[in-house]
Design a protein that fits this description.
about 60 residues; rod-shaped; 3 helices; mainly alpha; single chain
Length: about 60
């Protein structure tokens, strides 16, 4: 089962348990919250040494232009 499949099953269950209005309210909340949660979870702090080397590389490439 994929995440998409699980969401479809949960949506069917929510419609049956909550009723259409409450299910739509919950779905709207999840649609708004999900992108922010995914963005936060996928954010990784770049180590200082890597940040320094990347900055030097980019500045060097800009200087070549």
């Amino acid at each position: 089962m994929t995440c998409r499949d699980a969401i479809a099953v949960l949506a069917d269950d929510l419609d049956a348990m909550l009723g259409p209005a409450a299910a739509e309210t919950l779905e709207a909340h999840l649609r708004g919250a999900t992108p922010a949660l995914v963005a936060k979870a996928s954010r990784v702090e770049m180590p200082p040494e890597m940040r320094r080397r990347l900055r030097e590389f980019l500045l060097a490439k800009l200087g070549e232009s």
